[in-house]
Amino acid sequence: MEFDVLIVGGGPAGLAAAIRLKQLAKAKSREISVCLIEKGGEIGAHILSGAVLDPIALDELLPDWKQQGAPLHTEVSEDRFLFLTEQGGYKTPNLLLPNCFTNHGNYIISLGSVCRWLGAQAEALGVDLFPGFAGAEILYDDQGRVKGVATGNMGVGRDGQPTGAFQPGMELLAKYTLFAEGCRGHLGKQLEQKFNLREGVDPQTYGIGLKELWEIKADQHEKGLVMHTAGWPLDNDTYGGSFLYHWSTGDNYLVSIGFVVGLGYRNPHLSPYEEFQRYKTHPKIRGILEGGKRLAYGARALAAGGLQSLPKLVFPGGALIGDNAGFLNAPRIKGSHTAIKSGMLAADSIVAALAAGRQADELSEYPAAFRASWMYDELHRARNFKPWMSKGLLAGSVMFGMDQMLFRGRAPWTLHNHADHDRLLPAADCPRIDYPKPDGIVSFDRMSSVFLSNTNHEENEPCHLQLLDAAVPVQFNLAKYDAPEQRYCPAGVYEIVRDGGENPRLQINAQNCVHCKTCDIKDPTQNINWVVPQGGEGPVYINM
Question: What is the DSSP string of 485-533?
């Protein structure tokens, strides 16, 4: 199948690009065929974010979004930032908060719901949407330029052989292909390697975000409250913090609660999932949740390196957009508005190229437009956040506060990032962490959480979590780091089992995978390669 433009990924970046392409084509009385594929079974199924949305880019894309019924119903009413100790905490006066931590004029949303709405807008404009189709392979022409992607074969058995339900994948060809897979995209990672897109830039650095959706009691609900915390349960040397957003979709009282841990942490005994569960037992948090009902759970990695970790955005035949490039603003914990804007800028460059009769070249207009945009200015002002915070909570908070309050984000220096996978210390050199057992009231075990993610994979299919060397997990990871994959995975995918009580081996429970990509990022030797499973598999997030 051939199109003018192919978009891989149905998140805010990909959908914004599709909508913008059709808008510009209509304005110029041109016909541009646009296809968007999404590995989730429906648009929004794999979308997980906090989320507080700055509507700046949505205002540009669809100025009449309110009249069109966009699901932005809860405007932020109050910002609250707490530093937690084990039994208490203290509120930071709002006057001392940098502007990047304030949310006046923003909305608490379900990003999955917003993406479903954006999908409807795209479809109404004539975009061909194909959910349930995973981009499995990049296609190149005889000059080495990207010419599209192939979707994965369906109905392949665990042994790699076709089953009775076999269906071959499709080749989707385009003059330009936009990759909007989200953080640590499977194809985006290949493009970075093939075209040396990371040459001369800092390594990307990541966090893992874990989230639950709760319905709570009315007397505990403060509609529009945005609360963030730092400190306990993490130690001073481990970057991370929480979010807790009060919102509603009608007569219900909802709280989106989550925890972010920087994947540059040093202690291999640390478990981001257990830290999240422990955080909810804090007196200032437990009182909000008790008596409520947990509705959903999920996890997703996020790219937090900022401007100095952005790869080259373009290559012959396409571009990276959204968090596939790493446009998230880490101190704001926001990437949806920058994802939408990046999709729009890439679409503008494609329309200009097609109008000039070009195809499959480098879209130089896109990075130039990015550098001239408000998005570049915003990321430039935030660029030192993650490097400062990697120096510890106390020192990082003071130095980033000075960066923002004194220099307004325009300090004459840029600090640098380091790769996350090589930060672990040997397990023998680190203290073990005694995590409490879940109480079943506010804290829960992994498997009951994975159940709430609605995750499903066919058992008889090739494992989508590939080991480059099957011996490494035991001979190196277990021996040196006490098998950290058992703890950094938020879904219980990796498990050390001992056959007959003697010989340890790594068991991969791939059916539990929520597609967070943490293993692909944090594995010390980069031995785990996450590839797409069959299209339509994975989590099905509702209101996440």
Answer: HHHH-TT--EEEEEETTTEEEEEE-GGG-----HHHHH-TT--EEE---
- C-beta separation of 119 from 10 below 8 A: yes
User: Pairing mode, if any, of strands 146-151 and 171-179?
Assistant: antiparallel
At position 226, the amino acid (one-letter code) is V
The SS3 of residue 334 is strand
pLDDT at 535: 86
- Nearest alpha-carbon partner for 172 in 34, 3, 377: 3
The first and second tokens of residue 92, run together, are 């930071």
Per-residue pLDDT at 14: 98
* Maximal C-alpha separation, the chain: 71
**Token pair listed for 321:** 């957009």
pLDDT under 70 in the chain at which residues? 501
The DSSP output letter for 202 is P
Backbone dihedral angles phi then psi of residue 149, each to the nearest 5 degrees = -140, 160
Task: Please tell me the pTM assigned to this model.
Answer: 0.97
- Residues 509/523, Cβ–Cβ less than 8 Å: no
Residue 384 · residue 414 · CB < 8 Å: yes
Of 371, 340, 69, 373, nearest to 180 (Cα)? 340
- What residues are paired with 215 via a beta bridge? 254, 293
Q: 19: closest CA among 118, 111, 123, 122?
A: 122
**72 to 40, 56, 67, 68, 82: CA distances (angstroms):** 23, 13, 11, 11, 26
In contact, 156 and 162? CB cutoff 8 Å: yes
How much is the pLDDT for 275?
98
**pLDDT at 256 (0 to 100):** 98
Backbone angles phi, psi at 476, to 5 degrees: -120, -60
Close Cβ partners of 428 (under 8 Å, ≥ 6 residues apart)? none
pLDDT at residue 98, rounded to an integer = 86
* Cβ–Cβ < 8 Å for 33, 43: no
Q: Are 204 and 189 in contact (CB under 8 A)?
A: no
CA distance 310 to 327: 8
Q: Strand (E) positions, 272-331?
A: 293-303, 314-315, 318-320
**CA torsion, ordered 346, 349, 350, 356, to nearest 10 deg:** 180
Return the amino acid letter for 266. R
Q: What is the pLDDT of residue 122?
A: 98
